[in-house]
Amino acid sequence: MMNIEEFLELSAGKWFSHRTSHFVATQKSEGNKSDIIFEFLPADHPEVIKLCEQHEVNSSKASCGAKVTWNGTKEFKGEKYSGSSVLVLVPDEDKSNEGKLLHKMSGGEKSLLTGRYKLGSDEALTLTTESETIWSEERLWFASPNLRMRVSVVKGKDGFSMASFSSEIRMGGAPANAKASQAANSAK
Description:
Order of helices and strands: HEEHEEEEEEEEH
Strand content: over 45%
Low-confidence stretches: none
CATH class: Mainly Beta
Number of domains: 1
CATH topology: Lipocalin
Radius of gyration: 16 Å
């Protein structure tokens, strides 16, 4: 069974993502393509410590984190988009593969979010966040060592609702290892 640190380490590298999003209210779909850089951050990394401080969480309780940067294009409009976020995982005392999720999106203090993470026995990672205006749940898993899948649901307090599916292909970075192969084989 993979632990949460191994899951994030396996995610490190450069990924090509193709996402299809469905907007419930308008019944329209939109495709996006992006390059994603996923960087594993150990518990003692300065960005992990800083985010813990911003969330007023003792950084010694953090297990690890990640920095995710993306650049993409919306297929229909050709609009470019980019951004980054930092995630820190703080495990529950009795369960190391689930706990508090600290999240900061690029864009300042208002971008601080908290939520929950859980790495299930099926080796899929579920991230849930909620703010005053929006709720989201995202599930990620490896279909093979260099192919990751992601589904998400986002709901706004104003009635906004969107569901997305992404397939992500590793383009470089961290080499796939035995744990990734094992995770991919167990997913089959």
